[in-house]
Amino acid sequence: MKSLNIGIIGFGTVGCGVFETLKSFNEITVKKIAVKNINKKRNIENFDNSLLTDNPYEIVNNPDIDVIVEVAGGINPIFDVLKTAINNGKHIVTANKELLAKKGSELFSLAKEKNTVILYEAAVAGGIPIIMPIKTILCANKITKIAAILNGTTNYILTKMAEQELSYETALKQAQELGYAETDPTGDVEGFDASYKISILSTISFNKRIDINKIYREGITKITPQDIKSAKELGYKIKLIAMGRVLDDGKIDVRVHPMLVAKKHLLAKVNNATNSIMLSGYPVGDLVFTGAGAGAEPTSSSVVGDLLVLASELEITNSPLPQSICTHNETAEQIDIGDTYNDYYISITTSNNPGTIGIIGTICGKNNINISTIMQKGINKDNTAEIVVLTETSKESDVQNALKELIQSESIKNINNLLRVMN
Amino acid sequence: MKSLNIGIIGFGTVGCGVFETLKSFNEITVKKIAVKNINKKRNIENFDNSLLTDNPYEIVNNPDIDVIVEVAGGINPIFDVLKTAINNGKHIVTANKELLAKKGSELFSLAKEKNTVILYEAAVAGGIPIIMPIKTILCANKITKIAAILNGTTNYILTKMAEQELSYETALKQAQELGYAETDPTGDVEGFDASYKISILSTISFNKRIDINKIYREGITKITPQDIKSAKELGYKIKLIAMGRVLDDGKIDVRVHPMLVAKKHLLAKVNNATNSIMLSGYPVGDLVFTGAGAGAEPTSSSVVGDLLVLASELEITNSPLPQSICTHNETAEQIDIGDTYNDYYISITTSNNPGTIGIIGTICGKNNINISTIMQKGINKDNTAEIVVLTETSKESDVQNALKELIQSESIKNINNLLRVMN
Fold first, then answer.
1. Cα–Cα distance measured from residue A306 to residue A314, given in angstroms and rounded to the nearest whole number
2. Which residues of chain A neighbour B127 with C-beta distances below 8 Å?
3. Which residues contact A99 (CB under 8 A, 6 or more apart)?
4. B241 has which bridge partners?
C-alpha cells in the first residue's frame, strides 16, 4: 500500500474518530489538522498540538499532503478550500453531504479535469457501505428505486414517539439530551439532511445529476401521537423516508417525507438511530443495507476505508480508476410531487354528523381517488370526530384538490395530516 | 473500460443468467462456453451454438481469452481446469463456494504467483455485495463476528414450517416442487452449502485461513413442528445460522447449526429464500446486508459486477490491485464446538412424575448449567410430558455431559433436540 500524507479539515466528533482509527494504519500519516480554535482542549491521549492550524489553506496548499480529509461540513469556506485542494492536485475524502448535494457537479467536474478523485462513503449513511458498492460490485445493475431511512435523529424521535407514546416535542427534547439531535434540529427534523443524502445516492444510482432544489422535502414536525396510533392500528409504522425512483418514461422522482410503512416491510423494522437503505435493481433484485448512520466510529470506518482503498490504488497507478471518477454529465428530469402517484393516509377532524363519511367519499370520488379504508377514531368532547382515510394509488395533485374541496365543506373542521403510504 | 474476452464454464441457470446480463455490456465478449452436453437445447433467443464446447480445457488454453467465468460448481474436474487457467495467466471469476472452501488456499497461492486475480462475489449470498465491500470499503475494520443466513433453501423450509405449521418433510417437498430445493437436498439441508460460504466469509473477515473440516456443521432435518411451536411461544424463530467469531484469545469459532433467534433480532425477520449477513466490526459496529442469496439474476449481478470492476482496473494497470490479492497466509486456530459457550434450548420427553423437574434441575446444576426457563408443554397420551428448558450461557461440553446423565435417568424418556439460542 502506498504511504499517504493527509491533512484533516474539521476536528469535531468525526474528525477525532478518524484520527483515532488511523492510529492502526502506519501507511497513513496525519500531517496537519485545521480547526476553528487551536487553543481548545482536545480529548485525545498524547495529542501533539503542533498538528493544529486555524488556516485550512495551509493544508490544501501544502505540497507534502496527498489527500484532504474534509469532515468540517457546510459550504463556506469549505467549497473554496476544496476547490483550491483539487486545483493543487490533491485527492479528497469527504463526509460533507451538503457540499456534494449543492456543489457536487462543479467539484466533480474540476476533479475530473485535474485527475484527482473525490471519495465520499461517509457522506451517506455513516458506516454503511453503499457508495462504493454501487460504484463497483453493483455496477452491472440498472438501479430503479431507492427507499431509505437516512437520518438517525428523526428515526430515533419517531421510534420513541411510537414506543413510549410521546409527543414530537418531548421525543425531540429526549433526543437532544442524549446527543441524537442538535440544539437547532432544523437540518434533521425538516428533512434537509436526508434530502442531501438521497440526492447523492440518486445521482450515482441513476447516473444523472439531481437538482437538490427540485427535491420535494417534508419533515416530521407535524406528526402527532394520534397519527402514530392510527398507523399502528392499521398495521404501519411512521418513518421519514428518502426515496428516489426512475419512472418508465425516464423521469426521476426524488423526495423526502414521512410515510406509513407496512409493518412487514424491512424498513419498518429499523428503529432508533439506525439507518437502512433498500435498493432495487436489475438483475440483483431488492437489497437492504442496515447499520449505524452516524457517530464517530461508524463514520470513521467509511473515511478510513476510502483512504485505504485510495492508497491501495495509488500503489499501482497514479491514474484514478474509472469507477472513482464521476461520469454523471446528464441532468435528471425531476418530476414535481404533484405528478407522483401514491397511496395516502389522510387524518381529518369532522363534525359528528351522519352524512360526513358520504361527503368525504363523494369528494374523493369526484377527484379520482378510490378509498380503501375509512375509519372513525372516536368522538371528541366538542362533538367533532376524528376520521382516518386510506386511499388506493392516486395522483398527488388529485389528492391536493380533494383536500381543498374537503376543507370548504361545513362538515370538515380540519385536515390534520396527509401522509403517503408504503406497502 | 478495457475490452475483455471471456470464456464461461458451466451453462446452467447461473451461466445463462450471466450470458443474458452480459448482453448489455459491449466491452465484454463471450468467446466460448463449456458445457456437458453441446446438443442440449438452450432456452436463449438467437443463441449461437458454435460458442459451445464440451472441453473446458479448450477455453482455459485459448490465448484469446482473458478471464474465465466458472459457474459449473464442484471440485472435479474444475479444480484442475482452473489451475490450468491460472497457469496460463488468466483471471478467474467464480461462484464455486465448494471449490474455494476446499481448495481456495492452493488456488489463491497459485494466482498470487502468476499475478492473476480470483474474484468470487457470487460464491457467497448470491446478489448481496459482501466480498468486495469487506475487501475494500470496510478494510479499516477489525471484524470480530459474522452471523448469517446463507442458505435460501433451508430458510424457505423453516419459514414454511413456521408459517403453515408443516412438518420438515412436507416443507421440503414443497421447496422441491418450487425449485428451491434439489432432488437430493443433502448439500443444503445438512448445512454443507452454508459451511462453504461461512468458511469463505470468515477467511476474508478474520484474515486467516479456515479449515472447512474443522467447521462444526449441523443441518435442519431434526427440527420438528414442536420445536418451532415452542420457540414461537418463547419469542424466537428457528433459523439455520452460519457463524464465525474471533474469541478474545485470537482463536476462531466457525460453525453452522440451527438456532433459536430472538424475534427482535434482524436475522429473525429474514424469511423465505432471502439471505442476510450480520457483520460486527470495529469501528463500524453492526451492519446487516439482506437480499436474494441465489437465482440466475441476482447471481449474475455479482459475476458481471466482478467482471466490470476487473475490466475497469485492467484499463489502468496490468497489476492486480492489492485488495484483489489473497493475503491470508496465516491459518486460523479453530476451536472445537465442545469448547464454545452458548445459550441452549433443550426439548425433553419425560415421564409425568412430580420429581422430574427436580431431576433436570439437579443434573443441570451439577454440570454448571443455569436454567433460565423450564416449561412443561403438555401431557402425552402415554403419560409422558414434553419439557422445554432454556439455559443461561453454558459450555457446550457441560451441556453434552448433562444430556448424557439425563438420558440415564429413569424419568427421562428422550432428549428430543438440543438447539443453541441467539438473543
1. 12
2. 283-285, 287
3. A70, A73, A74, A75, A78, A79, A82, A107
4. B257
Helices (H), A51-167: 56-60, 78-87, 97-114, 131-135, 152-164
- Whether B32 contacts B10, CB under 8 Å: no
pTM of the model: 0.96
* Per-chain mean pLDDT for chain B: 95
> Kind and range of the H or E element at B162?
helix B152-164
Q: Residue A218 and residue B81: Cα distance in Å, rounded?
A: 58
Q: What is the pLDDT of residues B82-126, one digit of tens each?
A: 999 999 999 999 999 999 999 999 999 999 999 999 999 999 999
Query: What is the separation of C-alpha B241 from the centre of its chain, rounded to a whole number of angstroms?
Result: 8
Give the number of other Cβ atoms within 10 Å of residue B350's Cβ. Answer: 22
Interface residue B321 vs chain A (CB under 8 A): yes
A275 and chain B in contact, CB less than 8 A: no
Question: Which residues on chain B are in Cβ contact (under 8 Å) with A273?
Answer: none
Residue B24 phi/psi, 5° resolution? -85, -5
Burial class (CB in 10 A: 0-12, 13-18, 19+), B27: middle
Q: What is the pLDDT of residues A368-393, one digit of tens each?
A: 999 999 999 888 899 999 999 999 99
Burial class (CB in 10 A: 0-12, 13-18, 19+), A309: buried
DSSP letters for A151-217: -HHHHHHHHHHHHH---HHHHHHHHHHTTSS-SS-HHHHTSHHHHHHHHHHHHHHHTSB--GGGSEE
Nearest CB neighbour to B141, from listed A285, A301, A322: A301
C-alpha cell at B251: 482463536
Please identify among residues 294-313 of chain A the ones whose CB lies closer than 8 Å to any CB of chain B: 295-298, 300-302, 304-309, 312-313
Helix (H, G, I), strand (E, B) or coil at B225: helix
Cβ neighbours of B163 (radius 10 Å): 12
Sign of CA dihedral B405, B411, B413, B414: negative
Which CATH class for the B338-422 domain?
A: alpha beta
CATH of domain A339-422: 3.30.70.260
Contact in structure between A32 and A53 (CB atoms under 8 Å): yes
Taken in order A313, A319, A323, A325, the sign of the CA dihedral is positive
Report the complex ipTM.
0.95
| The predicted structure's pLDDT at residue A14 | 95
The DSSP-derived string for B230-250 is: HHHHHTEEEEEEEEEEE-TTS
What does the CA dihedral A73, A79, A84, A88 come to, rounded to 10 degrees?
70
Out of 3.10.310.10, 3.40.50.720, 3.40.50.10420, 3.40.190.170, the CATH code matching A4-125+296-324 is 3.40.50.720
Residue range(s) in chain B whose domain bears CATH number 3.40.50.720? 4-126+295-324
